[in-house]
């Protein structure tokens, strides 16, 4: 979290360089959310805001909404009216309960999958906070304000939060909400998210994971449902898009930061991935903000 924005009040609990929970308050203006290796849940406890994330412009959130930010993601929150956010960093295994493992969402009927994917493919999926969960969140905020400093406590509360997700929402709603991080092998996908920014090729990734290239490609496609090369391109595209739309860096600097041989190379990459040039993408984002 960048702290140089005026009137941003941030309270958090962290231990061993790991943040577990954060309360953010701001009257008006932008909040830049930096990346984290963890899944994060953003609960809007008060106020309203616009959420700018990857290719998603101006997603409107208000009191009672919760949105998920995948690992290694950045976003900008444009505060419209006195926002109070509670951010939970997931540091425990992603399971709803002993009889409802997270991987069960991958077993949804194909017809349900197609329906939810079609309606949510180009949207940021968010949920309405249930009454039970809202009371839980108020208690969490109170514990933070009372300076309860216990990693064991906050991890226990994370498991409680996941339990409420599993009990308060339908599998279809959970599928849409968790779709950005949904795989059938959480441990493998967590390792991928931990290393992918360090590598430039699928071969490098396989070496980093101590796999043969053929074995790595097979397991990756089985877990993520696409080739490792395609996934790497998509993840790079997300980060490039964020840099173009949410920073003031020159396109020359961005092309250098992401390993392009030249701005022209990045221009071609953006045309292929987004159907437009970096200049037009940035201009459209500024127009939407106005």
In a nutshell, what does this entry contain?
This protein has 290 residues and is an alpha+beta fold.
Task: Describe the structure in your own words.
It is built from eleven helices and ten strands. Strand 8 (95-97) and strand 9 (100-101) form a beta hairpin. The protein is globular. Strands 1, 2, 3, 4, 5, 6, 7 and 10 form an eight-stranded antiparallel beta sheet that branches. A two-stranded antiparallel ribbon has the order 8-9. Helix 1 (110-120) packs across helix 4 (171-178) and helix 8 packs across helix 11. The protein has 290 residues and is of the alpha+beta class. Mean pLDDT is 84; it is low at 1-5 and 116-122.
Count of all domains: 2
Top CATH class of the largest domain: Mainly Beta
Query: Low-confidence runs (pLDDT<50, min 5 residues)?
Result: 1-5, 116-122
User: What's the total number of strands?
Assistant: 10
CATH superfamily of the largest domain: Jelly Rolls
What is the ordering of alpha helices and beta strands?
EEEEEEEEEHEHHHHHHHHHH
The number of helical segments is 11
Q: On the 0-100 scale, what is the average pLDDT?
A: 84
Cα-based radius of gyration, to the nearest Å: 19 Å
């Amino acid at each position: 979290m960048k702290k140089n924005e005026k009137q941003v009040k941030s309270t958090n609990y962290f231990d061993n360089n790991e943040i577990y929970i954060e309360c953010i308050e701001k009257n008006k203006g932008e909040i830049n959310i930096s990346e984290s290796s963890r899944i994060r849940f953003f609960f809007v406890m008060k106020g309203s805001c616009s959420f700018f994330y990857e290719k998603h412009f101006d997603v409107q959130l208000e009191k009672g909404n919760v949105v998920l930010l995948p690992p290694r993601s950045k976003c900008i929150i444009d505060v419209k009216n006195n926002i109070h956010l509670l951010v939970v960093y997931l540091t425990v295994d992603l399971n709803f309960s002993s009889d409802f493992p997270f991987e069960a969402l991958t077993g949804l009927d194909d017809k349900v999958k197609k329906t939810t994917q079609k309606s949510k493919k180009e949207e940021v999926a968010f949920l309405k906070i249930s009454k039970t969960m809202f009371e839980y969140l108020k208690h969490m905020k109170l514990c933070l304000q009372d300076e309860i400093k216990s990693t064991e406590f906050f991890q226990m509360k994370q498991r409680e939060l996941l339990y409420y997700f599993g009990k308060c929402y339908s599998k279809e709603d959970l599928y849409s909400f968790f779709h950005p991080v949904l795989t059938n092998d959480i441990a493998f996908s967590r390792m991928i998210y931990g290393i992918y920014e360090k590598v430039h090729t699928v071969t490098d990734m396989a070496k980093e994971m101590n796999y043969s290239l053929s074995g790595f490609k097979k397991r990756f496609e089985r877990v993520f449902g696409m080739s490792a090369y395609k996934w790497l391109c998509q993840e790079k595209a997300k980060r490039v898009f964020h840099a173009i739309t949410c920073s003031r860096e020159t396109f020359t600097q961005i092309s250098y930061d992401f390993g392009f041989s030249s701005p022209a190379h990045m221009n071609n990459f953006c045309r292929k991935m987004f159907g437009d040039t970096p200049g037009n993408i940035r201009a459209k984002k500024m127009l939407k903000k106005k």
